[in-house]
Amino acid sequence: MDWISLGLIVLGLVCLVIGGELLVRGASALAAVAGISPLVIGLTVVSFGTSSPELAVSLQAGLSGNADIALGNVVGSNIFNVLFILGLCALIAPLIVSLQVVRREVPLMIGVSFLLGLLAMDGRITRIEGLGLFIGILSYVTWSVISSRQETAQHEAAAEKLGVAQTPRPKADAQQILINVGLVVGGLVVLVLGAGWLVDGAVELAQALGVSDVIIGLTIVAVGTSLPEVVTSVIATIRNERDLAVGNVVGSNIFNILGILGIAALVTPNGIGIPQSAIVFDIPVMIAVAVACLPIFFTRMMIARWEGFLFMGYYIAYTAYLILAATQHEALPAYSNVMIAFVLPLTAITLTVLAVRTYMKQRVQPKAS
Q: Is residue 22's pLDDT more than 90?
């Protein structure tokens, strides 16, 4: 038994919990002071910060000549973020989804996912394309912050005009702002350190137990860079900051494509090469997962527990497929046939029926009133 590896795993888990708590506390307080909604803080500051492990891995991969790792890291993280993280959070407590997320952020996430699919068709993301992606993330952040401040100001003005009592916005005390900024930065640092220690310890322990490098790469390393998102979203859900939890996931997926791939393509001399396997399987799965968010979020404007089970089940099924494919297991053809012929069509039909029923109810209710 490798006690050092076990120690790293335990230390990593402790750091993830502490870092996530610090980050959520600081980000929520800053949102209140700045007049920015917790949702937008989750979509920007928190989601970008928790994506820093993906950014570090992608930059290192690009500079070392392993640019295809950068793409796999982003695509795998986006699939994990939606299926596992939102699924886990919905199992803890049903997630209420903001109307803004359904109308703006989810369509944007779907759009940038399709954009990545188009850019990948020729087998490479060039530096020029990377620059375009990076400009996109700068524009998105600027637009989100400005529009959120404007909406907050409009709501406050309307409430004051109508004489409606409202909770006063916390005063922008310089010392308190510095403390909250310190909580955010400190939380991010602790999250990144914790994720690194946890991954290192898990890899060393898996190797000591004789687990193959293929399985380690497909599971421990891929999930490890998304651990900050897991911890932050779970803690936000437990603390009833559910806008922060949903915004963290959606914002991370947008940032992963526009920011991380954009920066990685810029620093890589020949751009990011796209493996054929990613073009025909992994990227389409990522797009399908993003598209599936729209009917699930739209239905009753929440992610119910049974939908959380659905997400978690699909992530387990996706991981099982990767392992079977990597090991060329004899069960792979039968497994693929069952997923393609039965499970996926049944899920698509169920989500479509739920979305149509919800849409029809929303059309009937105003007439009935």
A: no
